[in-house]
Write a structure and sequence with these properties.
The protein is an alpha+beta fold. The chain contains 11 helices and 8 strands. The strands form 2 sheets. Strands 2, 4, 5, 6, 7 and 8 form a 6-stranded antiparallel sheet that branches. A two-stranded parallel sheet has the order 1-3. Helix 2 runs parallel beside helix 4.
């Protein structure tokens, strides 16, 4: 079993990058050869990969993807991921902290999470690549008196372009039904409160609607009840901690808001089909 940390590793910005924004372009074939990205980790900010050529192999929250150009992917700071390898790949990648994102973009990304790699039309990839090139040039002009503001504004434009592509794949907000609007609000609340709010009633109260109506909205929209979504989000976080940290099952139960450790074990087994320790052992045998 490989050595693990007490907590899931978080990759901070490298020395000399103090503005909370980093953007680079690389051409790579084979292994990343960089342990910080090959190990499972979270990033300090919101991460984006623009696949310009070739293929990038990546694992995000226990799901492996082959990102084939032209494509883009966004990863939220909460998501655990690792780079596996590259096939003659050219990628532009950037990370931007929440503090550097425009508030409306930050909320938009929260609402989008999680997403999968998104294939792009060639002309869209060209626009994104040219914008990324401009941002990279700005990032190198540290002599500019308004350096940080220029970098921040340009990277927010790049983020907006990517978010726009994801939004284009979803139903326009003005066409969303009342059920879909409520489901979206529930999912946003769930992401922020899953360690403290455990029952459908908790979320119904926050949304000022009845529990049966919330359940009707969510089940109609997604096919699954509110309780299912709550349990899935909790168990995903539990799996992240079991796999990527050496915290005990009891510690993880406490982290996720369960004082009754045995109840948490039963819930994990019910949702996952294995106990927490069996899950940890299976993934490291």
């Amino acid at each position: 079993m490989p050595a693990k940390n007490k907590h899931i590793p978080v990759n901070a910005f490298p020395p000399g990058v103090g503005e909370g924004i980093i953007i680079i372009r690389n051409s790579i074939d084979g292994s990343p050869n960089f342990k910080e990205v090959e190990r499972s980790h979270r990033d300090w900010g919101h991460s984006f990969i623009l696949q310009e050529k070739g293929t990038t192999h990546i694992e995000i929250d226990f799901q492996k993807y082959a990102i084939e150009a032209p494509a883009v992917i966004y990863m939220h700071p909460n998501q655990v991921h690792r780079l596996i390898g590259f096939d003659k790949a050219t990628i532009s990648s950037w990370i931007i902290t929440s503090e550097n994102l425009l508030p409306e973009f930050l909320q938009l990304l929260e609402d989008l999470t999680p997403v999968v790699p998104l294939s792009l039309k060639k002309e869209t990839q060209t626009i994104l690549s040219e914008t990324a090139s401009l941002c990279i040039q700005f990032s190198e002009r540290k002599q500019e008196k308004l350096y940080h503001q220029i970098l921040k504004e340009s990277c927010n434009t790049l983020v907006a372009l990517v978010a726009s592509q994801y939004l284009a794949q979803s139903k326009p907000a003005q066409n969303a039904s009342r059920f879909e609007v409520i489901t979206k609000a529930f999912r946003s609340l769930l992401e922020r409160n899953f360690t403290t709010a455990k029952s459908p009633m908790d979320y119904a109260k926050r949304l000022n609607i009845s529990t049966p109506y919330l359940n009707e909205c969510v089940k109609t929209t997604t096919g699954y009840a509110v309780s299912w979504h709550i349990q899935q989000r909790i168990i995903l976080e539990a799996k992240r901690l079991l796999y990527h940290s050496d915290r005990s099952v009891k510690e993880i139960a406490g982290d996720l808001g369960y004082e009754d450790h045995s109840y948490f074990v039963r819930l994990f087994a019910k949702v996952s089909g294995v106990t927490p320790l069996a899950f940890r052992g299976k993934n490291f045998d």
